[in-house]
Design goal:
The chain has eight helices and four strands; from the N terminus they run H-H-H-H-H-E-H-H-E-E-E-H. The protein is of the alpha+beta class and about 180 residues long. The chain binds FE2/S2 (inorganic) cluster. The site of FE2/S2 (inorganic) cluster has 12 residues, from helix 6.
């Protein structure tokens, strides 16, 4: 009886995921021994983010049920890595490294410049939904400072004010055309 109830709860909590998403989860889980399916947590969080743009608390809960993990363990992963969006973000997420080596080479200045240019503070999204600006931990490219990462994929190095202008104006133009 208890197991009937818990399987109903599991089904209800897993509801946010589509069949296609569940198939992608299953592919990731199949890469590990059955008793270590929790190892797929990062890949599954990435899938959620690719499909929904961010990882909501409800999705963390449902993923915990799916992987047989404590919800807090999933939350610890999603909150540790800043590539996971824990709230909706703009079309272009700009992560500017402000860790110490970059601080010494204009990382914070680049972030401030973007705050002024975009008219938002770090952590905010522009009113048109185009840009989210946030500080970032080390991106592994300290020698190229100031550096920023666009949408967790495209690294931009040696970002002088001129290059920041080119980046933002180029992305705005691309959207307008
Ligand atoms: S400290 Fe900025 S990339 Fe390493």
């Amino acid at each position: 009886m208890i197991s009937d109830v818990s399987s109903q709860v599991s089904t209800a909590q897993a509801a946010p995921f589509s069949t296609a998403t569940m198939a992608r989860f299953a592919r990731e889980v199949s890469k590990y021994p059955a008793e270590q399916k929790q190892s797929a947590v990062m890949a599954c969080l990435s899938i959620i983010q690719q499909e929904q743009g961010w990882v909501s608390p409800e999705n963390e809960q449902a993923l915990a049920v799916y992987l047989g993990m404590a919800p807090i363990a999933v939350h610890e992963v999603s909150s540790f890595y800043n590539m996971y969006n824990r709230r909706p973000v703009g079309r272009y997420k700009l992560n500017v490294c402000t860790n110490l080596p970059c601080q010494l080479r204009d990382g914070a200045k680049a972030l401030e410049y973007l705050e002024k240019k975009l008219g938002i503070s770090a952590g905010q999204t522009t009113a048109d939904g185009l840009f989210t600006l946030q500080p970032s931990e080390c991106l592994g490219a300290c020698a190229d400072s100031p550096v920023l990462l666009v949408n967790d994929r495209n690294m931009c190095s040696f970002m002088s004010e001129d290059k920041l202008d080119q980046l933002i104006d180029g992305l705005k133009n691309a959207e307008a055309n």
